[in-house]
């Protein structure tokens, strides 16, 4: 096509655009990652502890002690993880993470430790809000 519009700018003299690194304030990235890992691990251990104490030990106890955290981990992997095989929008990720956090907090409530459940839910909510803000920014 010989009559295509031509740019009036000579791009040979223009330097390539640079992307300055954003200034970091507060806790470093690794600090937030450590907090997220601790929250997730505590949530899974809470579900396992609930399965151990809330059900009789031989048959249903072992099933719930292993099954509840395994189910939560699989749901988190399928719908919430960064390498999720199922493409989920932001609302779906929030719903899944909220359900898992409430399940772990409810486990502590049903065991008779509402303060532990409330503190866990508050820390997990704070960590979740920070994680979503960093993901969508």
Describe the structure.
With 137 residues, this protein is mainly alpha-helical. The protein has one domain. The chain is 68% helix and 0% strand. It has 4 helices and no strands. The radius of gyration is 23 Å and the shape is elongated. The protein starts with 28 loop residues before the first helix and ends with a helix. The model has no long low-confidence stretch (mean pLDDT 86).
As for the number of domains, it is 1
Helix content: 55-70%
Given the structure, what is the number of helices? Answer: 4
Class computed from helices, strands and strand pairing? mainly alpha
Largest beta sheet, briefly?
A: none
What percentage of the residues does DSSP assign to strands (E)? Answer: under 5%
Number of strands: 0
- End-to-end gap: 41 Å
Mean pLDDT: 86
Silhouette: elongated
Query: What is Rg?
Result: 23 Å
Poorly predicted runs are none
Secondary-structure element string: HHHH
InterPro entries: DUF2568 (IPR021214)
Protein name: YrdB family protein
Keywords: Membrane, Transmembrane, Transmembrane helix
Pfam families: DUF2568
SSE blueprint:
Layout: H1 29-54, H2 57-79, H3 90-110, H4 114-136
Helix pairs in contact: 1-2, 1-3, 1-4, 2-3, 3-4
């Amino acid at each position: 096509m010989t009559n295509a519009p031509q740019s009036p700018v000579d791009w040979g003299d223009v330097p390539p655009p640079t992307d300055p690194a954003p200034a970091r304030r507060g806790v470093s990235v690794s600090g937030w990652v450590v907090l997220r890992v601790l929250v997730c691990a505590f949530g899974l251990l809470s579900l396992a502890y609930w399965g151990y104490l809330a059900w009789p030990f031989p048959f249903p106890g072992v099933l719930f002690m292993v099954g509840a955290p395994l189910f939560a981990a699989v749901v988190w992997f399928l719908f919430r993880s960064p390498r999720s095989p199922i493409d989920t929008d932001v609302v779906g990720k929030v719903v899944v993470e909220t359900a898992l956090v409430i399940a772990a907090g409810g486990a502590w409530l049903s065991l008779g430790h509402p303060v532990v459940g409330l503190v866990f839910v508050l820390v997990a909510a704070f960590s979740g809000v920070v994680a979503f803000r960093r993901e969508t920014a």
